[in-house]
Amino acid sequence: MRYLTAGESHGPQLTTILEGLPAQIPLLESDVNAWLARRQLGYGRGRRMQIEKDTVEFLSGIRAGRTTGAPITLKIENSDHKNWTEIMDVNPGNEPRKKALTAARPGHADLVGGMKYRHKDLRDVLERASARETASRVAVGAICLKLLEALGVEGANFVDRLGGISSSVPFGWDALEIIENSPVRCLDKNAETQMIAKIDHAKENGDTLGGVLEIRFRGLVPGLGSYSHWDRKLDGRIGQAIMATQAVKGVEIGHGFDNADQPGSSVHDAIFYRDSSAAKGAYDRNTNGAGGLEAGMTNGEELIVRVALKPIATLMKPLPTVDVVTHEAADAARERSDTTAVPAAGIIFQCVIAIVLAEAYLEKFGCDTLPEMLERLEEYKKFIATY
Ligand code: EPS
Q1: Whose CA is nearest to atom 12 of ligand 1?
Q2: What percentage of the chain's residues is helix, strand, coil (to nearest 5)?
Q3: Ligand 1 centre and the CA of 380: distance in Å?
Q4: pTM exceeds 0.90
Q5: Is residue 237 over pLDDT 80?
């Protein structure tokens, strides 16, 4: 399975092609729209989210509410484009264009992207580098979440830290509604209040905030991915998918960084043999220090991925920079932006991890139709139940 995304933040639309998805997966545009809407939420989001009401249009690969096995084309319109038609005009003209950006923003693609592609109007860089592109990956991920749901896999995402404020309430699958109803997708009401105050304070000071998110998946069968070659290892593939998302500066499986300070005897998960109807068979563990992955493969325990999101690079109280045309010292450009995108980022990460997990299921159980995958999955579960 593979996908390509294209489109700029203020161009006409985001276009995505997803190829290699099995046929017979029930799928409606509303299944994708629910996730696109969640991506737009979150306390601290910028004014763009009042302009867009992101929805997808299926242009191929779907008929009568199910996938056909043909490539799926996804269209997400940029409502804001009508205000940018002159600036984004594909034809020559209107030079010098309005909203040209030459005061490179520290922490963004602006300066290095301008060097790499020989642009002096750094809008040619930021339009594609923008986090707007994550809407395309959420659309693909939402489709993969539908496939995973049919295969008995469920995901969750929540904010563990925001602006240095930590949640102290442990995650539970019975708390999904609390997360959904929290403006910062946090389980801890006290922390939530402090996070919101910190976001308000950052906004008043023209600053931005980052944070740490946790994404979980349960119901995964053991043996997805492989130890046999570096590019088959699931931790590596999840790591790439997450690190390739805007504003990510760190990723860990389980509490990888804390575990690095602990002795092996308190990190590795002892194995027991118990009757179990779970997807993982009879081999069981009382702990999950491995975060659901061992040697690049799912081990049947919950997959736990933690992500460090940098504070958004566009500051309303800008840092010093250099104008790439005059080479004069300047204040960095102030583009419309978010104070924080941390709450929304969990939605994006759950989707990009779902893409990797869906690929792993296709590798192990075939990729023509969902019914065949389900037959092979049941046969595999029977095998591991008595392994
Ligand atoms: C975003 C779209 C962008 C930004 C933001 C999030 O839209 P606009 O540039 O028109 O405001 O609001 O992107 C960034 C903060 C960034 O640095 O790229 C989105 O759709 O998520």
Answers
A1: 337
A2: 35, 20, 45
A3: 44
A4: yes
A5: yes
